[in-house]
Amino acid sequence: MAAKLRGSWYFQLLGPRIADSRLWGVNRRAITAACGAGVAIAFIPLPAHLLFGLAAAVIWRLNIPAMCGTLLVLNPLTAVPIYYLAYRVGVLLLGLPAGSFSFAVSWAWLQNGLGSIWKPFLLGCLVCGIVFGYLAYGALELAWRLSTVNRLNARRKPVRGQ
Q1: DSSP 77-88
Q2: Which residues fall within 8 angstroms of residue 115, CB to CB, at 6 or more apart?
Q3: Is 39 exposed, middle or buried (0-12, 13-18, 19+ CB in 10 A)?
Q4: Helix crossing, 28-42 with 49-60: angle to 10°?
Q5: Quick one: pLDDT at residue 158?
Q6: Domain ranges of the chain
Q7: Residue 92: burial class (beta carbons within 10 Å; 0-12, 13-18, 19+)
Q8: What is the C-alpha separation between 21 and 5, in angstroms, rounded?
Q9: Chunked in runs of 10, what are the mean pLDDT values of the chain (162 residues)?
Q10: Using CA atoms, how far apart are residues 109 and 132, in angstroms rounded to an integer?
Q11: What are the CA-CA distances from residue 118 to residues 41, 87, 121, 153, 156 (Å)?
């Protein structure tokens, strides 16, 4: 399967770096960093999360499957609560009153509707991306280390009856 992928034209467009084993292997540092970066990238309010995630994974040699899986945190069911949380964090940090706004799917709303909320929204996205990215990285790193310690302790435990 890997040889077939490497031979495909779209895979060759990405260059030899995409074949790096660190991008695909199970490595604690690559996976935990990919999850943290994926959560941070999910807070970018643009519809190009996968492209940003793949570029970051290739540049920083992070695990691509972990990055793509983490980017699924932001989906049509979670986008509104995640971005509303980011907006509220931005409002809190700027000390502004939380305004009410109505959403309409139209070009006019995109041009005029974001007028009062774009500053707290973008600040909240930046702060939440950084904070939750580091929290996801730290939580996964801690869980991975605890799992490793538990496995090592289980190996060292003497077997009864011998």
Answers
A1: TTHHHHHHHHHH
A2: none
A3: buried
A4: 150
A5: 72
A6: 17-148
A7: middle
A8: 14
A9: 63 68 81 93 88 88 90 88 90 80 61 72 93 96 92 79 56
A10: 29
A11: 18, 9, 5, 51, 56
